[in-house]
Amino acid sequence: MTLVAKRREDYRAPEFTITDIALDFTLDPSATKVVSELQVKRQDNANAPLELDGEHLQLLEVAIDDLPFGDYQQTDSGLVLNNVPDAFTLRIVTQVNPSENKALEGLYLSNGVYCTQCEAEGFRRITYYLDRPDVLARFTVKITGDKASLPTMLANGNPIEQGSNTDGTHWILWQDPFPKPSYLFALVAGSFDQLTDTFVTQSGKSVALELFVDKGKRQRGEFALEALKRSMRWDEEVFGLEYDLDIYMIVAVDFFNMGAMENKGLNVFNSKFVLADQASATDEDFFNVESVIAHEYFHNWTGNRVTCRDWFQLSLKEGLTVFRDQQFSSDMSSPLSNRIKQVRVMREHQFAEDASAMSHPIRPDEVIEMNNFYTVTVYDKGAEVIRMMHTLLGAEGFRAGMDEYFRRHDGQAVTCDDFVSAMQSATDIDLTHFSRWYSQSGTPRVEVKRAYDAASNKLTVTLTQQNLATADQSEKHDLYIPLQIEFLAADGQHVAPDSGMFRDNLVILDKPVTELTFTGKGSNITPVALGNFSAPVKLTSDLTPLEWLHTFRFANDAFSRWDAIQQLYNWCIEQYYQGSPQQIEKVIWQGLYEAVEASQDNPEILGECLVVPSFETLCQTRENIDVHALNEARQTFSHDLAEFMSDLLLVIYQTNQSDSYAYEPAQVSSRRCKNVVLTLLAELPLAETLITEQFSGSDNMSDTLGALKAAQQFDLVLFNNLMNEFEQRWRDDPLVLDKWFGLHATCDRSDILAQLTLLRQHPQFSQQNPNRVRAVIGSFAFYNTSGFHADDGSGYRFLTDYLLELDKTNPQVASRLVTPLTQWQHFAPSRQALMRQQLSRLLDDASLSKDLYEKVSKALA
Ligand code: PHE
Ligand code: ZN
User: Fold this and answer.
1) Which residue has its alpha carbon closest to ligand 1 atom 7?
2) In this structure, which residue's CA is closest to atom 12 in ligand 1?
3) What percent of the chain has pLDDT over 90?
4) CB-based contact 577:633 (threshold 8 Å)
5) What band does 767 get if pLDDT is binned at 50, 70 and 90?
6) pLDDT score, position 1
7) Ligand 1: does its nearest atom lie under 6 Å from the Cβ of 260?
8) Mean local confidence (pLDDT), 27-37
9) What number is the average pLDDT over the span 624-636?
10) Protein residue with its CA nearest to atom 2 in ligand 1
């Protein structure tokens, strides 16, 4: 199989546009009829045919201006209509089969709910259309369906008319006044519990809020509704952006490929990101619900009102909206733990993507399957790029740029360049060089080095940027990197360089080498670079272990203090990995102890500092990795750390108990701190009672899960006992049981593959449900280091066997799960061979999806 990639350069404006579309659905499980009436207008003077996109459709009828039309061809990818007029009404009737649709793209039926998913190119599975984001039309949607089983029938915009038929069906007509691209269309029909509320906007308009959840789950939806109101208020306060329709609807569905979808006025959510209460959801779940609710809401302006010209511009809406939801979350809880969470995603996942064959710029140049580009690069690195603009422009400048962006582009489909140029116009900062972040892939390396000249008493700090070739781009240029930096003298006082700073604590690296000098201040100065993770780069420096401790004690930037401890852990683990842990002198252990001791009244930073870098993070700064040696080094270090400070850890564990559960920042930090400590203590025999007592006394899911994670670490017998109890309690609640599936799948045990087989046979497991598949297969492939990387290659083979099966029904999910196999670059050659062998098996499958083909063929190239 060879598939041709689409290229960003080849963008052409559409030859036709569609101003209005009237859709008429008659819902039926296996034969849903879709009548579409389009107002089509030619955009240029040529006599081009009208080429509509369409896949998996049964065509029943074509008419132009009410007359049957026959001058067309059906192709693999759509419908070509020849000799059409310059302006006309096109009527197309198609039929689709929602119950057979297991790919969950287009119109599908699952658990009795009809639901659509159109981003990126799913609308073409509903009807023939110009399925591209730069065609914006006004939608009117009529839905007819069975009254008893489908009491709720929703589409975008406002309901304007409804009625009943004599055959037991009813119908409803929806109208969306805002022209939109087809990817924002949505239809949902089913039977739900409904939560309602109202929100009064800053200009006094009343908006009806409606949340639809599975029957019986009403109470678990309350938090999401509150989160929605907080998001609406925040966007008014921070960006002056108000909601624009009379009604805002959110539907939670159990079968969904992604997190959620921002369809205009009708968001569709994976129920995982809506449902949450104290008993069933962890603090992290609450956090995720709030941030995804915010994310989709914020898309109403950054995505819907101003949308993407083409899919290469995806980061225009996603990078920006992720940045906005991050700012929101940070305002709702605590900036430091939020920033650390974001950086973990970058270091664990985005850096890994950059280092792999899937490396791409935040604005990709070439795409075979668009669904493969909903990536941590487009989303999270995209958000880091927006954040750097925020840093450069300042909060006010950034807001002015956003205002200008909406002033220029409201109602349009635009490019990343349009965004940068609006930002540029608002301040006098030149973003030309900066905008290379959009076109260049890869993680820049920044090196900090010092040289002291005693004769002139001058210390030179050299900051070097290096942009290495990536799989997709061999030629690289220097980037424009805003580096937050502070300098500490030996006594902990701050010192400033002679000159060269862009502003206080900010230096711009815009060439290969940037130097800062300190005259007359001696040689003993510690540079603390990458404050607040001011740029998505890998930092290396000549700091000594004792200087990391010095940084922790004296730096102003809280992120840098945390990062100093992480760097020190990384260094310690390296000593174990090299087989010489004795290199870690007593003063360093002691220093770590004191750092923890000194932070006891700050559970937020303490909790984060007691997390040892993940295996995935450790991989990003190493080559030719011996997986098991590195994993064991990490494990042994954690054990020794826990042992060295066990008395202190016990005290911290005891002091961070709260009596009655609330999801609020102080409690969340304290609970996290307690559970992080429990995981560390699980290295030691004394943990058994703590774990069992926490498990049996817990009144919330965070503590329950904390106990289970610690038990998983502690010993298999205890773990199995508690897991069985958990299963009894939650056996009828698959969403909660996903936590249980995930814990089993990440367990370090020699019979893990047999365990996975059992899990697949569990009554609540279903290969058709992406959440279940991610909980079992995804957890194993991404996070079970010992099992996935078993020396005989059995873990790789297991994943491959599974993907060959899953790809037949749900290529999108299969393609996401193949990621760990494609990231073989960091490992030792023998392991690379085993991983590539399995990738070859995938590629040998003649019926492999485009999705998997693109990733696997790149990984093998
Ligand atoms: N646009 C969605 C979001 O980020 C993600 C998504 C993409 C959902 C494709 C479904 C399909 O909010
Ligand atoms: Zn999004």
Assistant:
1) 119
2) 261
3) 99
4) yes
5) very high
6) 60
7) yes
8) 99
9) 98
10) 261
Q: Which residues pair with 28 in a beta bridge?
A: none
Question: Is the CB of 325 inside a 6 Å radius of any atom of ligand 1?
Answer: no
8-state DSSP, 148: T
Tally of CA atoms within 13 A in the half-sphere of 238 that contains its CB: 19
Q: Is the CB of 295 within 6 Å of ligand 1? A: yes
Which candidate, 851, 745, 827, places its Cα nearest to that of 788? 745
For 415-444, write each residue's pLDDT tens digit.
999 999 999 999 889 999 999 999 999 999
The beta strand positions in 427-473, using DSSP E, are 445-453, 458-466
Q: What is the DSSP letter of 182?
A: G
577-616 CB burial, b ≥16 within 10 A, e <16? beeebeebeeebeebbebbbeebeeebbbbbbbbbbbebb
Question: Is the pLDDT score of 697 beyond 90?
Answer: yes
User: Whose CA is closest to 609, among 681, 677, 657?
Assistant: 677
What sign has the CA pseudo-torsion 781, 783, 784, 785? positive
Q: What is the mean pLDDT of the chain?
A: 98
Measure 438 CA to ligand 2 centroid, in angstroms.
Answer: 18
C-beta of residue 11 within 8 angstroms of C-beta of residue 365:
no
Residue 601 near residue 555, CB atoms below 8 Å: no
Nearest CA among 638, 711, 702 for reference residue 673: 702
Rounded Cα gap, residues 323 and 385, in angstroms: 9
Q: Is 121 in the pocket of ligand 1 (CB under 6 A)?
A: no
For residues 224-232, give the mean pLDDT: 99
Radius of gyration of the chain (CA): 28
Task: Name residues with Cβ closer than 5 Å to ligand 2, which is an ion.
Answer: 318, 321
Beta-bridge partners for 145: 170
Contacts of 29 (CB under 8 A, 6+ apart): 98, 99, 109
Type of residue numbered 156: N
Name the 3-class secondary structure at 50.
strand
- Position 2 scores a pLDDT of 65
In whole angstroms, give the CA distance from residue 198 to residue 225: 10
* Distance in Å, CA 296 to ligand 2 centroid: 6
What is the mean predicted confidence (pLDDT) over 588-599? 98
Active site residues: 296
How many CB atoms sit inside 10 A of residue 251's CB? 27
C-beta separation of 466 from 511 below 8 A: no
Query: Taking the complete model, does pTM exceed 0.95, yes or no?
Result: yes
Ligand having the closest approach to the CA of 374? 1
Ligand 1 mean position, distance from CA 401 (Å): 25
CA of 704 to the centre of ligand 2 (A): 31
Q: Whose CA is nearest to atom 1 of ligand 1?
A: 261
The H-assigned helical ranges of 645-778 are: 646-655, 665-681, 687-697, 701-714, 716-730, 734-745, 752-761, 770-773
The rounded Cα 182 to chain-centroid distance in angstroms is: 23
Q: Is pLDDT above 90 for 225? A: yes
Atom of ligand 1 nearest to the CA of 379: 4
